[in-house]
UniProtKB/TrEMBL annotation:
Molecular function per GO: adenylyltransferase activity; ligase activity
Transmembrane segments: none
PANTHER family: DISCO-INTERACTING PROTEIN 2, DISCO-INTERACTING PROTEIN 2 DIP2 -RELATED
GO CC annotation, single: plasma membrane
Pfam families on file: AMP-binding (PF00501)
Name of the protein in question: Acyl-CoA synthetase (AMP-forming)/AMP-acid ligase II
Length: 639
């Protein structure tokens, strides 16, 4: 299978006799592709001139694009070079800045039989260096792939992070397409060969690499296709998500090739600075995926006039997942963008995790999101009892039906015994999309994968997430380790965080984290919340690009020395009124102080540890309204 063109006899896994160049048939749920390499090569033969991926410079102007033939050629060129330095089964860290070169590195690894390990660029975001070091310790890579400029600009940090002297750095953008592409020899791989390691986003602890084979990834691509039903030659996908993250990788890098469609990509920073860029690109797309916080950001950073000028009638699916999906966010987003032509049924709440490749539940489509009103008292007893609208309730979002090819069982977390319908328990998943385990972590693998549920056939994945199935919809209520137990009642941090966000206008919506801290006598609730950006600072941010480094202006909180106390008191009163518990401490922080994962999940474990170690510098207000800081935690308790 060498050369610049994939011949029909090289795609025997599909019905080559019925598939001619320029045509395509979407594979069935049980994909006929034996490997992801075969999938990409097939598309290059069927649709050589069709664009597979486009990258938008600054989120607006097309910088570059790849056709399916060019993607195949670049992958073969990279694979031929990798074969000079590594053997099939070796690991390669993919450490790229935003752009299409990531695709050459990723598919090049697949074509070489090298196990790809996508990770963030060292220069991207706080904590990325420590995360890369942890991943390198776990994966023990042979190769480090990136662009020449990135490798040169981060040489010192990369040397300190990837400390193994045997690691070979390869600048994939310097590899000539010819003749290396002709020198490529297909490795001996099959459906059960490891394709890549998807390292967890780190919301619950040290990153762990989920082992995913070609078969498992292709199964989940079929799951996605069955829900979204992409139409070859008509479907376009738009994404701002990091390509190293499971949602960005599967939905924006691999799925477009599976579905024979085109993906338009932009950097996360371009979106965060001006969310209108993503919305503008969506005018030419049918499918996108995003965490919940991005919808809130679009609501805050766009004007009514801007929304009226958008045309989102073409959008069929906005898959919302990767973090808790909030009912009020969905409703406000649907209402705000109705003048743009966005249909409510286009919003698709979903649930998934890297350990199951990506998607577990979602849909059905097309249908509006399903929300339910649950009794807070019953929820505290691990039951979901629906109440009438207008009565005190916790609003829960249905994350869709469990998709065909997958099974979900709700179990009691300690005994793993199945819980009755309507009862909250740990979500356990089985099916062809579930990964093989964690790389180089046998104890964690044994505790999480292949778990037996009494009375239920098969082996299951323990997700660590709490939920229940209500009227056919999987409802996620929180994480096992995050649940706060006060006086025998369960309280979900996400519920408390929603209450805190609405307690005072000085607080930055969506940037609240509630944790429990054991003071040696009992569990206590600690609330950490960021303050809003300054009053009067770039009020054109609704229209123009925002400065992500905006600081906090104390006068935007309150006047004088009483400001800190007033905001703290408002938070305490709101939490007490809504949840019947009084926070032990309320910590006000400047914007950007709280740790979140790349997908927007709050890192509560890191917050709890940092609070206990005195790692947060809270914002206080002096007598003249000047900002002051004091160490939060270590026994320091606010008023």
């Amino acid at each position: 299978m060498s050369g610049d063109r994939v011949e029909p006899d090289g795609v025997s896994g599909v019905d080559a006799a019925r598939t001619r160049p320029g045509e395509t048939r979407l594979p069935e749920l049980s994909s006929s592709f034996p490997t992801l390499t075969h999938m990409c090569r097939t598309r290059a033969w069927q649709l050589p001139g069709r664009t597979s991926h486009v990258f938008l410079r600054d989120g607006e102007r097309p910088l570059a694009g790849l056709t399916y033939a060019e993607l195949d050629q670049r992958a073969r060129s990279v694979a031929a070079e990798l074969a000079r330095h590594a053997q099939p089964g070796d690991r390669a860290l993919l450490c790229y800045p935003p752009g299409l070169e990531f695709l050459a590195g990723f598919f090049g690894c697949l074509y070489a039989g090298v196990i790809a390990v996508p990770t963030a660029g060292v220069a991207e975001g706080r904590g990325a260096t420590a995360r890369l070091a942890a991943i390198a310790r776990s994966a023990t890579p042979r190769l480090l792939l990136s662009t020449a400029d990135f490798l040169a600009g981060n040489a010192t940090r990369l040397a300190e992070t990837v400390s193994n002297s045997a690691v070979v750095a390869v600048a994939t953008d310097r590899i000539s397409a010819r003749p290396p592409a002709r020198a490529w020899t297909e490795p001996d791989i099959d459906a059960d060969t490891i394709a890549y390691l998807q390292y967890s986003s780190g919301s619950t602890g040290e990153p762990r690499g989920v082992v995913l084979t070609h078969r498992q990834v292709l199964h989940n691509l079929g799951v996605l296709a069955e829900l979204l039903r992409p139409r070859p030659e008509e479907t376009s996908i738009v994404s701002w998500l990091p390509l190293f993250h499971d949602m960005g990788l599967v939905a924006a890098v691999i799925m477009p090739v599976f579905a024979a469609s085109t993906a338009t990509l932009m950097s996360p920073t371009a979106f965060l600075r001006r969310p209108l860029r993503w919305l503008t690109a969506l005018q030419r797309a049918e499918v996108t995926a995003t965490p919940n916080f991005a919808l809130d950001l679009c609501l805050r950073r766009t004007t009514e006039q801007q929304r009226a000028q958008l045309d989102l009638r073409r959008v069929r699916h906005v898959v919302v997942g990767a973090e808790p999906v909030r009912a009020d966010t969905l409703e406000r987003f649907a209402s705000a963008f109705a003048p743009s032509g966005l249909r409510p049924e286009a919003l698709v709440p979903a649930y998934g995790l890297a350990e199951a490749t990506l998607m577990v539940s979602g849909g059905p489509t097309p249908a509006p999101p399903v929300c339910c009103h649950a009794s807070p008292a019953a929820l505290g007893r691990d039951r979901i009892e629906l109440t009438e609208p207008g009565t005190p309730a916790v609003r829960l979002v249905g994350c869709g039906q469990v998709r065909p090819g997958l099974r979900v069982v709700i179990v009691e977390p300690e005994s793993l015994r199945p819980r009755p319908p309507g009862h909250v328990g740990e979500v356990c998943v089985a099916g062809g999309s579930v990964g093989s385990g964690y790389w180089n972590a046998p104890e964690a693998t044994a505790a999480t994968f292949g778990v037996t549920v009494p009375g239920v056939a098969g082996a299951f994945l323990r997700t660590g997430d709490l939920g229940a199935v209500v009227d056919g919809q999987l409802v996620i209520t929180g994480r096992c380790k995050d649940v706060i137990v006060i006086d025998g009642h369960n309280h979900y941090p996400s519920d408390i965080e929603r209450t805190v966000a609405a307690a005072h206008p000085a607080l930055r919506p969506g940037f609240q984290i509630a944790v429990s801290v054991d003071d040696g006598q009992r569990e206590r609730v600690v609330v950490l919340t960021e303050l809003s950006t300054p009053a009067g600072a770039n009020r054109q941010s609704d229209v123009d690009e925002v400065d992500l480094a905006d600081g906090v202006d104390p006068t935007d909180v309150a006047d004088g020395a009483a400001g800190w106390t007033l905001v703290s008191a408002a938070v305490r009163a709101a939490v007490l009124a809504q949840h019947g518990i009084a926070p032990h401490d309320v910590v006000l922080l400047p914007p950007g102080a709280l740790p979140f994962t790349s997908s927007g999940k709050p890192q509560r474990f890191a917050c709890r540890r940092a609070y206990q170690d005195g790692g947060f510098a809270r914002v206080r207000l002096g007598a003249a309204g000047a900002a002051e800081t004091a160490v939060a935690g270590s026994g320091v308790v606010g008023p």
